[in-house]
Design brief:
Layout (H helix, E strand, L loop, with lengths): L1 E5 L3 E8 L12 E7 L1 H11 L4 E8 H14 L3 E7 L4 E8 L4 E6 L7 H14 L5 E4 L11 H11 L3 E3 L1
Parallel strand pairs: 1-4, 1-8, 2-6, 4-5, 8-9
Antiparallel strand pairs: 2-3, 6-7
Helix pairs in contact: 3-4
């Protein structure tokens, strides 16, 4: 089983418009919304290749619950959420269909308290039960937890998993 770790997933929404015009109200005829984040994408790919995967994600608020729902229900990937108070970010991309240009608006990532950090580490330790490979993906955008990968990788190795960063 391949466990993917995404510390800052997102609600990834793309709206399709003919052409972006700054300062105007634009209506989209179509949009797509998926759970985003490099590790989530890796789990989606592993599943598509017919292999076993679980997605370990740190999520917060209603937007975080939406991410968990999309991973579990839309992608069919088992999700291991660690809940924090700070909301999960949304990335909104405007795709201009006339010229195939994208403009992406990134919200800031979640903030993690020291107590929540301890919960993340404990939940990660519990998630390793049958993981043969652990794939750590994505930026750790909260400076307060910049050591996350360096703390989790030795735990995964102690559990006998191959680690990929």
């Amino acid at each position: 089983m391949i466990l993917t770790v995404t510390p800052f997933p997102c609600v990834d929404k793309t709206v399709y418009i003919d052409r972006l015009e700054a300062g105007r109200f634009m209506r989209s005829e179509r949009y797509v919304c998926v759970a985003g984040g490099k590790g989530v994408n890796a789990s989606r790919a592993v599943k598509a290749l017919g292999r076993s995967t679980r997605a370990f994600v740190v999520v917060g608020s209603h937007s975080g619950e939406h991410v968990v729902e999309m991973i579990s229900e839309d992608d069919g990937v088992e999700c291991i959420p660690v809940r924090v108070k700070s909301p999960t970010r949304t990335i909104t991309t405007a795709l201009e269909t006339e010229i195939q240009r994208q403009t992406a608006l990134y919200e800031p990532g979640s903030k993690v308290t020291p107590e929540e950090y301890g919960q993340i580490v404990a939940a990660f330790r519990d998630s390793l039960k049958d993981a043969r490979v652990v794939c750590f993906s994505g930026t750790v955008s909260d400076p307060a937890i910049s050591r996350l990968y360096s703390d989790l990788i030795p735990i995964a190795k102690e559990a006998g998993a191959i680690t990929i960063l």
